[in-house]
Amino acid sequence: MTWQEEIDIAVDQERQRADEEKARADSEKARADRYEKMLKDLGKL
Q: Between the CA atoms of 32, 36, 39 and 40, what dihedral angle is there, to the nearest 10 degrees?
């Protein structure tokens, strides 16, 4: 394996990890948005 292939693999792994972190952050934001909506709806009762 050449050094360029090793660099490509490392870059691909880092991009995949970043994508997973972004998906997790998006999921957490969606959950926070749902809680916020639920609390606002409860406040209207």
A: -170
pLDDT tens digit at each of 45 positions of the chain:
899 999 999 999 999 999 999 999 999 999 999 999 999 999 987
Distance CA 21, CA 25 (A): 6
d(CA 5, CA 32): 41
Q: What is the distance between the alpha carbons of residues 34 and 12, in angstroms, rounded to a whole number?
A: 33
| Tokens 């972190």 -> residue | 21
Q: Which two tokens stand for residue 14?
A: 């880092």
pTM: 0.67
